[in-house]
Amino acid sequence: MENTNYFELINNTFSTLILDAIQYFPENVNKVHFESSGLLFGINNGLQTECDYIFPVGSVEKRTKSSILTNKKVDNALKASRKLFSTSTFVGTYHSHPYNEYFSDWCCPSNSDVLYALQNKYPYEVIIAITRNNQKSQELNIEYFEGDGLEFTYNKNEPGNSFPSKTNLGYKTTYIMGEFQSYKFEIRAYKFTGDSLIDVDLESSEAELLSLLNNESIKLDGIDEKHTASLRKMEFNLRTTQSNRKSNLDYHIAKLKNIK
């Protein structure tokens, strides 16, 4: 089986996911309390989906073995968006998995997550797993990884916080891992099939831009407002296949490095 689907986080959606997860997992709190959650908007072209806007709506209110009670603001915001948004459509939801420590599969859907998908039938679900890594505050570091593509099916005999049934789909998918301040995180994207959630490739032009700036030793807090346009143009170039893409990126990098 071949993976032909991918989900891309563009504009400021990647950083919004991270910041929203962090606000519900503050550094000065010893215990994990809340999951972040919100709505994803963009353009779904069938196999390719671009997410260009994220609307945080608060934490999940309650999870049980047989149901999930979501924050009522989710439904209210979704209904309002359908009357207001003209350049983007609703493509799914996201939520965080805050944990005390990293472990394998921490970013996979739980049994409750699959049940939530079955109940709501939203096209995509993005999950960000996050923990404090007990290290000193550090600059943003991002890496892409490849793993087995899996299908997750609801198991009615297991509690909500356990793993659902899993099937290996025989292809590889990409996901993002990174570190920021004192946090370690992983982000994955899943598509709802009608019966299950499946892994899809996750890409992010914003993440690529941040990695590029880091590799070039360009600090975001050293860029003034009038040069922000260069960052926007670079992010756009990173998600296009234009023939002059590299020369455009090189031009803006040189421009940013010469900021006095």
TrEMBL record:
Gene3D superfamilies assigned: Cytidine Deaminase, domain 2 (3.40.140.10)
Protein origin, superkingdom: Bacteria
Protein name: JAB domain-containing protein
